Prior knowledge:
Layout: H1 2-20, H2 23-26, H3 30-52, E1 58-67, E2 70-78, H4 80-103, H5 110-129, H6 133-151, H7 158-189, H8 194-198, H9 212-229, H10 238-241, H11 247-255, H12 258-268, H13 275-296, H14 302-323, H15 326-361, H16 381-395, H17 401-417, H18 422-450, H19 472-483, H20 501-505, H21 518-543, H22 554-560, H23 565-637, H24 644-664
Antiparallel strand pairs: 1-2
Helix pairs in contact: 1-3, 1-5, 3-4, 3-5, 4-5, 4-11, 4-15, 4-19, 5-6, 6-7, 7-9, 9-12, 9-13, 11-15, 12-14, 12-15, 13-14, 13-18, 14-15, 14-17, 14-18, 15-16, 15-17, 15-19, 16-18, 16-19, 17-18, 17-21, 18-21
Amino acid sequence: MQLALAAVLLPFAAFIINFLLPKTVLNKGEGLFSTVCILFSLICSCLLFAKVWARKPIHEQVLWFQIGTIKIYAGLLLNNLSVLMLPLVSGIALAVHIYSVAYMHDDLMFRRYFRYLSFFCFAMMALVVSDNLLLMYAFWELVGFASYLLIGFWFTREKAVQANKKAFIMNRIGDIGFLIGIMILFAHFHTFDLITLFNYPTNFSSSGNLSGTWLIVAGICFFLGATAKSAQFPLHTWLPDAMEGPTSVSALIHAATMVAAGVFLLARVYPVFNPDVKLIITIVGTFTAFMAATIALTQNDLKKILAYSTISQLGFMVAAMGIGAYASSLFHLATHAFFKCLLFLSAGVIIHEMQHIKEKLHLDIDPQNILYMGGLRKVLPITFITCIIAALALIGFPLTSGYLSKDGILIQAFEWAEGRSFLYQLIPIFILITSWLTAFYISRLLFKVFWGESRLKEMIPTFEYHPSKENKLFTWPMLFLSVFCLFPFFSLNPLLYEHAWLFRGFLAADYFERENIYHTIIPAAVNLITVPVVYLAYARYINQNIKWFPESGFLFRLSYNHWYIDQFYQNYIAKSVVWTGRKIYAFDLFVIDGLVNLIAKVGLIISQISNWLDKYIIDGAVNFIAFRIRDIGSFARGFQTGKVQQYLLTMLIFILSIYIFKILI
């Protein structure tokens, strides 16, 4: 347990120390210090992996707080899922840290960058070892907050500010679902503890404590949380915009941290999902994978192509969870982390080189636009090789790790649909088509970036690349990651996914291997069709001779404009929300506030009238009587002189007055 605490807290220690120490103490040593901390975190994670993997889980907890008679515990849960994620996150983070030391060296906010990066790693690693849903939710939010900081790292850029706001808001939608799901389970079981919730003597869905309707609602709520975090349709649009952050951040977010958190959540609460919810998960994942792959076909921004590739691959993992291919989904999560991180780090080197050319020649170009590239294999040979390896793994080419994990999903998808209606058959068919589309768009990227001559010659006929030595802090992490993109790390058998140690670590107790026709046909079909697909990519984007996919056509425009989903959100959802907000504001201002103000004004008038009545009528009458009595008293007091003669005279006058009065009357 000490190893787990060390693995999680070392990045947090790096964050705290970098935050507290003054600039003069470390003098740009924050990067090195954070890297050393994440290195030791990786070592602790690997030791923990060796101790726990395929063995009895370790679970320790302490009393957190108490609500009446309900006691809430918090602790660490170390099982196969946890100890897989710890070295995966820390290993990818180590590569990104080393890379970032060079990539961010000249950035004025170098120190702040490594603070955020360390905090991000801490939040993700704490999430994966949390043993209860409430603690998971707390670190889930911290992961979202850290990503918000990193996506908007260059906050002086308007696009970066808009991107991190978009990511933050769309993830809050999913987080609401996650929180509601937690509350539903707590209301029925009075606990947040994962072991208590999911280790009932009977199956969770038939335990009798949760009705079928509430189980479906809870499952959909948890899936909504995963949908936002793992950028699944319809909450996927934040991820391509998140490319406004540093490329090294994109590598970490897309590989093993934020977007992986959604798939991790599905795995953690998997017993909640009944067949109805799993079918929804399957459909959403499959559609997302296909949609994102079609969008990636026509994009020209290097990082956005990779972003839509991530969305598509996450769709594979989500669909795999839906069809019950739990082990294959997590297997692909691990392999994807390595080759996608490698692709993004390669993209960073490419963009860095194009930015250097742009500044040197004072060109007005976008360094991320692949239309300005070409021939870069001559100046970036190591990047070219590592990018090829990562791309082959993404395609699922034999002898790569991606071949094993992706074929596992494809084969199990066909097995899942076997014997069912045609609509069920569409799931594996679309997953298969998506695999071919993946080969198309990544091949197009490779051809545009590395093959041929530089397209800058169209602007400057005399332009030539000047070979320069690639920075070792760039190439070392990339070479490190490329090793994990090949099959030997996961399995000595390069062709059968069932032999991979990672796959076997997540097998259900009742799993049995099925050697049927799909195990032969699917890998063969994928690889046979991949060859002409790659050729089509070459023909379309080098020779420009594919007639059925013109840039003026509907399909091309649909793909290039992201299926118009962003426009739909902007023109209808966002405007509707703004319009509704304005109407509510107007209603509040003129009706609610107007009514309150009217009541206040009427009350003020009544109080003023009451004040006048009190002052001039009530108080006036009382004062009038008092004053008159006072006057009478003053008048009567004038007769009290103490002189007998005056008294006699007064009596005489008074008697005469009465006599005259009687005579007159």
